[in-house]
Amino acid sequence: TVTPRLQDWLGAVEIILAKPVSRAGFLLSRYGAAVLFVAFHATLFFACCALALLKSSGTWEWRFLWAIPLTVAVFGVLHAVILLVATLSRTPAFAPVAAVGLTLLCGQLAELHGQGLKILQEDIPGVLRQMIRVLYWALPKLVDLLHHGTMAMLSPETGPKLVAKLGFAPQAVSLSAGAAIWATLLFTAGVLWVSC
């Protein structure tokens, strides 16, 4: 038969109920499984795209594969925020909205911190300026990660011209690639710790 018999299910349920999984173990295993799922599919997608570029152009651009860890890193941060909001609010529908809001907030804070504070110093009160700095350093550095990831994917000859054409402001990126990665990893670890 296609459906399993009741006796097959009883043994599995008894084993699970005899030694239940902790909340932290359950949440971290779901988080890890989601990140591995995205990593597998990002690898598959970008490797196929790189092979298609190789077939059509005849040259292999290994820099294109930098999109894989970049995609997984950004997803890992956003999924940790989704997990935290869904856990604390008990409203899973609100969690993706919070992740989109975090992405927009990180972009605006990077813009304000990188160039806006210097331009508008007279217009921004001191307390608000300090709040912007604190929020900038407390939240993940998604703009910095995306900028450094984009620069790693581009060739040194055409990269700066293309970045200027796309509108990436170099002054909006104030951290090195390593500092942006560590700050983002610390934020993600903190969010996961609060979730558990």
Task: Please give a structural write-up.
This protein is mainly α and 196 residues long. The protein has helices at residues 6-18, 23-57, 67-89, 95-119, 126-138, 142-153, 159-166, 177-195. The chain is 76% helix and 0% strand. The model has no long low-confidence stretch (mean pLDDT 77). Helix 4 packs across helix 5 (126-138).
Summed up, what is this model?
The chain has 8 helices and no strands.
What are the secondary-structure elements, in order, as H or E?
HHHHHHHH
The total strand number stands at: 0
Q: Kindly report the average pLDDT value.
A: 77
Strand count, sense and closure of the main sheet?
none
The span between the termini is: 40 Å
Q: Which structural class matches the secondary elements?
A: mainly alpha
Question: In percent, how helical is the residue content?
Answer: over 70%
Oligomer: single chain
Strand content: under 5%
Q: Rg from C-alpha positions?
A: 22 Å
Overall morphology: flat
**Regions with little confidence, pLDDT below 50 for 5+ residues:** none
Number of helices: 8
